[in-house]
Design brief:
Largest sheet: none
Number of helices: 17
Radius of gyration: 20 Å
CATH superfamily: MFS general substrate transporter like domains
Order of helices and strands: HHHHHHHHHHHHHHHHH
Shape: globular
CATH topology: Growth Hormone, Chain: A
Strand content: under 5%
Helix content: over 70%
CATH class: Mainly Alpha
Number of strands: 0
CATH architecture: Up-down Bundle
Number of domains: 1
Distance between the termini: 47 Å
Length: 418
């Protein structure tokens, strides 16, 4: 077995560990509101800071991996996640929630974002890139699957603090695993990338990580595909992490569904997301990525329009159908989006995808905050579900406008806007 597959396994397990904290926000909105009497808008603001930093940190993390290596950056990021999660146990004011949960965990998890998966895939694989991207993207959903039932049980039986401690311990436990088994480049172990026809030496460290990340953004921002990818991916984030992952549990609870039942439904979404994302990676290696994305966004929008009619005190067959249908589409958008970044931006594609991911998280942050405010103002989430469905239709149209890059490999020529 090629060493690249071991690196992919390590990366998968690492992302699963980091995904534990991403399972918590939707579970804690009601307990924090009950204990501290903080409004849902205030709690949603902390979640929005977390989601925004998760995205904004990603391109700089990709550049830092080029400078200091994947292993060092990931180990530090996991430690920061553990520290932020543990400190939330002692908070007494809402600004501490913003600092610990929003800033520390947001920045740490941003360094563990999908740009990490893109960097590993670009360095270690030439063949099967779409499939590997799908598998690594599914790692986040697997983390949700593993931790959601356990954390929801903890929150309901023992309160939210044991859940935060569990997340901290999980993140710190992954650090030795990363340090011992992860390697930065195939040349570190004397190998070529999987599927490569010749050996590629390890490139020297790239200095000026922050400057390079900004320079890549400025260059990419002069091209049309970047804005179309960033805009559509912002809607992707708004309709998944910002809306469903953050507000589905409290929305179901508004209809008198038990928190553990709602959290279990999110976990089931995670099950089918693994299937859908791996399948999407396989499709990405074989079909037009733009049409794939258009189909994904259109189907997601349709499902969200029906969700307000399906929420009820108990789980019934139509809701299960939504969970399966929506789960297959949860992050199936990632493999074709990474493939389009690679097609248009070549060796800078990981950093460009980091900026596209930043837009994803900004969209998620806006909806996480707006969803909480809408619940406070209107007394329900219905208007947010309908708005998200309409936005997904717009995203489907945006990706169809993207043209194929004229240069298929290397540092692809960037096509100016207009």
């Amino acid at each position: 077995m090629h060493r690249a597959w071991l690196v992919a396994v390590v990366t998968f397990v690492t992302i699963v560990g980091a995904a534990a904290f991403a399972s918590v926000p939707g579970l804690l909105i009601e307990p924090l509101h009950a204990e501290f009497d903080w409004s849902r808008g205030t709690i949603g603001f902390a979640v929005s800071i977390n989601l925004a930093l998760y995205g904004v940190t990603a391109p700089f993390a990709a550049a830092l991996m080029d400078r200091f290596g994947i292993r060092r950056v990931v180990a530090v990021a996991l430690t920061v996640i553990a520290a932020g999660s543990f400190l939330t146990v002692f908070m007494t004011a809402s600004w501490q929630l913003v600092l610990y949960w929003g800033v520390l965990v947001g920045a740490g998890s941003g360094s563990m974002a999908l740009a990490f998966a893109a960097t590993v895939t670009n360095r270690w694989f030439v063949a099967r890139r779409g499939l590997v991207t799908g598998i690594l993207t599914a790692a986040g959903a697997s983390g949700q699957l593993v931790f959601l039932p356990l954390l929801s049980w903890m929150v309901e039986r023992h309160g939210w603090r044991p859940a935060s401690v569990t997340v901290a311990l999980t993140a710190i436990a992954v650090v030795p695993f990363v340090w011992l088994l992860l390697r930065d480049h195939p040349a570190d172990v004397g190998l070529s990338a999987y599927g490569a026809t010749e050996f590629t030496p390890k490139p020297p460290p790239v200095r000026g990580a922050a400057r390079r990340a900004v320079a890549v953004l400025v260059s990419a921002a002069r091209t049309g595909p970047f804005w179309l990818l960033a805009g559509s991916f912002a809607i992707c984030g708004a309709s998944t992490n910002g809306l469903v992952k953050t507000h589905f549990v409290p929305a179901a609870h508004d209809h008198h569904m038990p928190i553990t039942a709602a959290a279990s439904l999110l976990a089931v979404i995670g099950v089918f997301d693994v299937v859908g994302t791996v399948a999407s990676g396989w499709f990405t290696d074989r079909f037009d990525t733009r049409r794939l994305l258009a189909v994904y966004y259109a189907l997601r929008g349709i499902s969200l329009l029906f969700l307000p009619m399906l929420l009820a005190p108990s789980v019934h067959p139509p809701m299960l159908f939504f969970i399966v249908f929506y789960g297959l589409d949860w992050v199936a958008t990632v493999p074709p989006t990474i493939a389009l970044c690679r097609e248009h931006y070549g060796e800078d594609s990981a950093i460009v995808f980091g900026w596209v991911l930043a837009s994803h998280q900004v969209g998620a942050a806006v909806i996480a905050f707006a969803g909480g405010v809408a619940r406070d103002v209107f007394g329900s989430y219905d208007v947010v579900w309908y708005a998200a469905g309409a936005l997904c239709a717009g995203a489907a149209l945006m990706v169809l406008v993207i043209r194929h890059a004229p240069v298929p490999k290397g540092r692809a020529a960037m096509v100016p806007v207009g």
